[in-house]
Design brief:
2 copies of one chain form a homodimer. Chain A is α+β, with helices and mostly antiparallel strands. Among the domains of chain A are: 60 residues, Winged helix-like DNA-binding domain superfamily/Winged helix DNA-binding domain (Arc Repressor Mutant, subunit A); 77 residues, Ferrous iron transport protein A (FeoA) (SH3 type barrels). Helices cover 40% and strands 18% of the residues of chain A. The first copy, chain A, has a 6-stranded antiparallel β-sheet. Chain A has a two-stranded antiparallel ribbon with strand order 1-2. In chain A, strand 1 and strand 2 form a beta hairpin. Chain A is globular and about 55 Å long. At the A-B interface, helix 5 and helix 6 of A face helix 5 and helix 6 of B. Chain A binds a DNA duplex through helix 3.
Chain lengths: 222, 222
DNA sequence: TATAATATTTAGGCAAACCTAATTATTTAT
DNA sequence: ATAAATAATTAGGTTTGCCTAAATATTATA
């Protein structure tokens, strides 16, 4: 068994590995986990002793196969609980993160499988993030970012990459949510900001925003 | 906020107070929590500093009003989760205890209230134990122990006082469960063991067993 | 390429919770 | 009422996980 803290480190390393290739730096982990670099170094040694990560002093860490498996289980639990909170307990999708951070550490294989089955084996959580199955397999994820669409493209929001409350509340305010259909009306060349159409309204989004919105691309205007 | 360990102590003190009048001894807590007496003493000082308990060296502890309120919240969460696990996730009632011990520490007032509402505001958990409401109020509990019934009495099982797996499995084997109707056929005078009728079968129960079974008394034979 | 800037690690501390062993208080029994 | 038995507390140690400050390694710059 692993401590909650160990699990948090494994999850953080996993998530950084999705974004960055190569070894994950001490400082990126210390930033993500809001802890000091010295604490990270210490924990990486522990995780390395338990063979959950490959750690080279001064050159970062990567998960071992065993560490990756564990990380996927934590992600699975986190996302299943988020789904439960939103779909069954009337949470808003921007309220669930903190609670799911606690629930993901509950240890009971039976609980995870029964919860999954109770929820109808969902493939995506309320943020559109894919839920690993019990073997750690991820469903194919919506790959295009909104920023990759071209003028006139149509699509449907399938996920968001930034889970901060600020971003999620911004989206809410703009009426952008999961399964919202959008259309690209204009792209500013100098800063790549985008005007999109959402339910009859026109909304301007920065490149930062469009980079963090995943889209299922439906069709392109002739 | 309180640590998990502090919460476990508060719950344990609360439960011992239900059984025993007066101050709760260090040794009874150390036994219940499976920890050494020295650790208990240490924690009692901490809880006393936080004004959750009244602690007199060598003379035991009792919860303060604030400690009791906190303990009731933990009990509430524990029993709501047990209900959820049994009624929604297909757990058997003798499998839920360990998982509920973890879930009871999740901190989110909204989660507790939404879960309660989702479950239909149940009054009793799967062991028949009463679930405190959000203000800490307990529904009137089935008060009679099976051991208090007299020859010829009829009743319905409403709860059990010993949550050990061994006891719960024993009950299962005898087909004694929640809402099972029983009838007292015979009481042995020398050891107070009892023969009861359950669904056409006769079962002999020790005083230890009958002390741990709660009954709604229905009627007495003429 | 040497030096400055930055990142990382080491060293030494702290608090929570546990432990064992030794001491002290209370209770029981003679 | 005192001695023996039992219970509780204190003293001192351990592990986890965090911290700050100092030292060292790596990277960037002049």
């Amino acid at each position: 068994m692993f401590t909650q803290s160990e699990e948090n480190y494994l999850k953080a390393i996993f998530q950084l590995q999705e974004e960055i290739e190569g070894g994950i730096s001490t400082s990126s982990l210390s930033e993500k986990l809001e802890t000091k670099a010295a604490s990270v170094t210490e924990m990486l040694k522990r995780l390395s002793d338990k063979e959950l990560v490959d750690y080279q002093k001064y050159y970062g860490v990567q998960l071992t196969e065993s560490g990756r498996k564990q990380a996927l289980l934590i992600v699975r639990k986190h996302r299943l609980w988020e789904y439960f909170l939103v779909e069954r307990l009337n949470f808003n999708w921007d309220e669930v993160h903190e609670v799911a951070e606690q629930l993901e550490h509950i240890k009971s294989p039976k609980l995870v499988e029964e919860l999954d089955s109770f929820l109808g084996r969902p493939e995506y959580d309320p943020h559109g993030d894919p839920i690993p199955d019990k073997h750690g397999k991820l469903p194919k994820s919506p790959t295009k970012k909104l920023s990759q669409l071209k003028l006139g493209d149509h699509g449907i929001c399938k996920g968001f990459n930034d889970n901060s409350s600020a971003f999620l509340q911004f989206l809410d305010k703009q009426n952008i949510g999961l399964h919202t259909p959008i259309e690209v009306l204009h792209i500013e060349t100098f800063d790549e900001s985008m005007t999109i159409k959402i339910a009859q309204r026109e909304v301007l989004l920065s490149k930062t925003a469009t980079d963090n919105i995943y889209i299922d691309n439906i069709a392109t205007e002739a």
